[in-house]
Amino acid sequence: MINTVLVLNQRGDPIFIRAFREGVSNTAADAYRTHYKSGKTHVPVVRLGKQVFCHKKVKALSLVATVDPAANVMLVFTFLQTIADTLEAFFETELTEALIEGNVVVIQELLDEMCDHGYPQTTDVATLRMFVHVKGQRRAIKKEDQKSISIQATGAVSHRAQGIRYAR
């Protein structure tokens, strides 16, 4: 599915890179940067060599995902937009280059929770706030919250009614 997520500034320089899988070399990313900087028509999907790059412009930044050739491209574009929306909601400010550069570690943790080995998972901001804390602001998680986190993250539903006891 998604191999790498890159965030490029207006000049085409990478300000954030998160690799979910092996297989995307730095030369492939450099080839895309060269293509991006060349000023050619920026089509949303570009195939350079064996890699497919999905490009989404968000304000002054460009979110780029490298994907497998057989990947669902609409899912990738939806996920890239969801990344932008989630970051804005999580930090409660507009998505800028300074925000990305100043919060690299937190964004890394957010993407780790949002995407598991290249497959999008949890994108709900309230759930992500329970997992990821900014600048060491840890809070104690109650037992009830732990159950709700598990249910929100996995979608698991208990099919057994509460309070059932069996006689021996």
UniProtKB/TrEMBL annotation:
Transmembrane stretches, start-end: none
Gene Ontology CC annotations of this record: clathrin adaptor complex; endomembrane system
Compartments it resides in: Endomembrane system
InterPro entries assigned to the protein according to its UniProt record, in alphabetical order: Adaptor_comp_med_subunit, Clathrin_mu, Longin-like_dom_sf
Matches recorded under Gene3D superfamilies: 3.30.450.60
Main location: membrane
GO biological process: intracellular protein transport; vesicle-mediated transport
This protein's record includes keyword Transport: yes
UniProt KW keywords: Membrane, Protein transport, Transport
Domain of life according to the entry: Eukaryota
SUPFAM superfamilies to which the protein is assigned, alphabetical: SNARE-like
Family annotation (PANTHER family): AP COMPLEX SUBUNIT MU
Protein name according to UniProt: Clathrin adaptor, mu subunit
Organism of provenance: Kipferlia bialata
